[in-house]
């Protein structure tokens, strides 16, 4: 089954990162023919000039000719973003976030962390310094777990809409023979999946390294504008594995996080 996106939701509070997220949302909505919704949340103790936000969105409508539906909520930002996702049946969420110095493994800005953890659909986290990036180059990391290939329908959807090249990175902290064999098999299946859909791709293998750091390094080498990852979410829904957190924390480009529970279908060949 192929991935589809009919409704896109952007969490917007006029911050630099959320402004870039909204710009990315506009690009995605235009390419996919999707509805674009924004939600801005009035939080306790947080002042935001709603007239200014409304005027800004009205200007976007005027400049782009696109319909943008506004949702004004009150409460905790992550909770209202996720509630709005359910209300409108969003297929994709974009939220702004900010990185941190150093390579701390377990830290994400609270709103972005909770939206990614609690959402039912994929979430793209966007940092303010990614404004000039586009989706023409997409990084698709593959590890040695079966779940890693569940990103493929989403990668294919974006690649078709943006005429992208997908850079497959087979990566693992281990480099034993069994791990390398799994990576080779998954890479071959992924290459076949993309080739049958006419999608350009490259393939690289890097084993025995920190996965998140290697993904970030390779994304720079290939000039990617998006990294795709599984969140490794636990059944509680409120925990993400180390790699997922490190990527969202430190990756200078947008990161698309996909949960096992939002996989769109089973792909042949053991996917």
Search tags:
alpha/beta, 8 helices, Rossmann fold, 2 domains
Q: Count the beta strands.
A: 10
Q: Give the strand order, joined by hyphens, for the main sheet.
A: 3-2-1-4-5-10-9-6-7-8
Overall pLDDT:
85
CATH class group of the largest domain? Alpha Beta
Short account of what is shown:
The chain has 271 residues and is an alpha/beta fold.
Description:
This protein has 271 residues and is α/β, with parallel strands linked by helices. It folds into 2 domains: 7-130, 3-Layer(aba) Sandwich (Rossmann fold); 137-262, 3-Layer(aba) Sandwich (Rossmann fold), CATH 3.40.50.620. The chain is 38% helix and 23% strand. It is built from 8 helices and 10 strands. The chain has helices at residues 16-32, 50-64, 77-88, 110-118, 152-162, 177-195, 211-221, 242-250, and strands spanning 7-11, 35-42, 68-74, 92-97, 123-127, 137-142, 165-172, 200-207, 226-230, 255-258. The chain has a 10-stranded mixed beta sheet, sandwiched between helices. α3 (77-88) runs parallel beside α4 (110-118) and α7 runs parallel beside α8.
Topology:
Elements: E1 7-11, H1 16-32, E2 35-42, H2 50-64, E3 68-74, H3 77-88, E4 92-97, H4 110-118, E5 123-127, E6 137-142, H5 152-162, E7 165-172, H6 177-195, E8 200-207, H7 211-221, E9 226-230, H8 242-250, E10 255-258
Parallel strand pairs: 1-2, 1-4, 2-3, 4-5, 6-7, 6-9, 7-8, 9-10
Antiparallel strand pairs: 5-10
Helix pairs in contact: 3-4, 7-8
